[in-house]
Structures are given as structure tokens and as C-alpha cells.
Design brief:
By secondary structure, this protein is mainly alpha-helical. It has a domain at 90-283: MetI-like fold (Orthogonal Bundle), CATH 1.10.3720. It has 10 helices and no strands. The longest helix is centred in the C-terminal third of the chain and has 38 residues, at 199-236.
């Protein structure tokens, strides 16, 4: 059987010469699509790099104007040299590892509790009415206000920082879980049950795929908040971590150390954000 092509038929003139293809009916080839994807990706990368270069140039210009004291705003070159020295000495990695451990553990706790509570709240009006006031009240109180109390209860070890991080990360994951599962069309769930699918199969094959984009949006936001939450705990009481390193530089009036720790924290947060974006691209292929 002869296979027909989906490409538009190119018109011809009376003498047999090929005529122009109608651009409204022409479809790009696979190679063109891949090229367009690469161009779009490169454009985003270049725009991000341009933004970073612009920020560094603006920083350099402000430093050269001498409107801000040097002990408050070091030059970009001083910060770069300081970061390299701290890296070679193993200081940056030691404190980054401590912050990453706290952030990952806090994120894991928040993910399990947030999704575990978000799904029944999204599916049960009774659960929503019972828990919504308490969840709203928990977010009305800033975590930093009772962070010292957690240190009194659990000491200055790993546990209080993980709890603080989990409390900060928990709410975005919870809200996105609730919104994602509530947006699933109830008719699709009824249809799956009507075809004999049990609850676990309905959840795995219908609800979760349709709610996944919203859920991953909350996880993407939570990755950056996890680093910030770990640093907040380190500000209160710690003997290691990027927050501890920033506090050390502040008390010693060594601004390059503060900037080195802050930039490392920003890099870790961006890396986590990009990792979730890549995961989202790999998981959500059905669209």
C-alpha cells in the first residue's frame, strides 16, 4: 500500500515550473522543528547571561562611584578572588554541603506532608473545612519569630534547621497540590471508575498526570525556598552553613565573605530551580 505524505502539495505553473508554497498550509520539517527548539533555548540562555553581565557591570559602576563605602559594597573582582580563595581552602564546599543537607531534608519532609495533606483536602470538603483555618493561621505567624524556640527545644543541631526549612517550604507545595488536583475534570475520574479502574489506578493514571504540571510548579518554587529556609535556621543558631558564613563575615566586617556566601546560595537555588524544570520537561510529555 502506498503511503501518502502529509506535506502540502506544491503548486506548479502551466509550463511545469514549481510555484510558491502557501505559507498558511506549509508545515516545518522535523529538522526545522529541532532547529527552532535549539534557537529558542539558546535565546533564553543568552538573555540570562546578558542579564548577569548587566548586573555585574551595574555593580562595578556603583562601586567605582564610591557612593557606598567599600566595607559595605566590595568590587566584583574582590568578591571573585575571595570566593576562589575560600573554595580552594574548602570553606565554600564545607558550608554549602551543610546548607544543602538541611535544605534537602526539609524539602523532603515538606513534600511528603504537603502532598499527603493536599490530596485529601482537594478531594474532601470536610477536610478542607477542618484544616483550612489552622493552615491559614500557621502562615500568619512568621517562622523566624519562633525559630529561637525551636533551637531551645531541639538544640543547635540539624533537626531545628530541617523543621524551619520544612515549615517555609510546606505551604507552596500544599497549595499547588490542592489547586492541581481540584482542576482535574471530575468527568474523567467518573469515566475511569466507570471502566472499572480502582482508586489507586485512577490516581496514578488520571489525577496525577493532569495535576502534575501545577504540582511541579509548586515544587519548583519550593526548591528555592528550601535554601532560604535552611539559611534562616542558620542565622538563628549554627556552626556551619552558608547562613553561618554570612553571619561570620558580617560580624567581622568582611563584606567579600558575605557576598561570596550570598552568591553561592543564589547559585544553589538556581541550580535546584533548573533541575526541576528539566524534570518537568522529561515527565510531562503527553502535552
Amino acid at each position: 500500500m502506498k503511503r501518502t505524505s502529509s506535506r502540502p502539495v506544491q503548486p506548479t505553473h502551466e509550463d511545469g515550473r514549481p510555484g510558491p508554497i502557501d505559507p498558511t498550509t506549509a508545515e516545518p520539517s522535523d529538522a526545522q522543528r529541532h532547529w527552532l527548539v535549539r534557537v529558542a533555548g539558546n535565546r533564553q540562555v543568552w538573555l540570562s547571561l546578558a542579564g548577569i553581565v548587566f548586573a555585574i557591570l551595574a555593580w562595578q559602576l556603583v562601586w567605582e562611584s564610591h557612593r557606598v563605602p567599600e566595607y559595605m559594597l566590595p568590587s566584583p573582582s574582590d568578591v571573585a578572588h575571595n570566593w576562589i580563595d575560600l573554595w580552594h581552602a574548602g570553606v565554600i564546599w564545607h558550608h554549602t554541603k551543610a546548607t544543602l543537607t538541611e535544605a534537602l531534608l526539609g524539602f523532603a519532609v515538606a513534600l511528603v506532608v504537603g502532598v499527603g495533606l493536599g490530596y485529601p483536602i482537594a478531594r474532601s470538603q470536610l477536610m478542607d473545612e477542618l484544616l483550612a483555618p489552622y493552615l491559614a493561621a500557621s502562615q500568619a505567624m512568621p517562622v523566624i519569630a519562633f525559630a529561637p524556640l525551636l533551637v531551645v527545644w531541639f538544640g543547635i543541631g540539624l533537626l531545628p534547621k530541617v523543621i524551619i526549612c520544612a515549615l517555609i517550604v510546606f505551604f507552596p507545595i500544599l497549595i499547588n497540590t490542592i489547586v492541581g488536583f481540584r482542576e482535574v475534570d471530575p468527568q474523567l475520574i467518573k469515566a475511569a471508575r466507570g471502566l472499572g479502574a480502582h482508586e489507586l489506578r485512577v490516581f496514578w493514571h488520571v489525577e496525577l498526570p493532569l495535576a502534575l504540571r501545577t504540582l511541579l510548579g509548586g515544587i519548583r518554587m519550593a526548591t528555592t525556598l528550601a535554601v532560604a529556609g535552611a539559611v534562616v535556621g542558620e542565622f538563628v543558631a549554627a556552626d556551619a552553613g552558608l547562613g553561618y558564613l554570612m553571619n561570620l563575615g558580617r560580624t567581622e566586617y568582611r563584606a567579600p565573605i558575605v557576598f561570596s556566601a550570598a552568591l553561592t546560595m543564589a547559585f544553589v537555588g538556581i541550580a535546584g530551580y533548573v533541575a526541576v524544570m528539566i524534570l518537568e520537561h522529561l515527565l510531562i510529555r503527553w502535552e
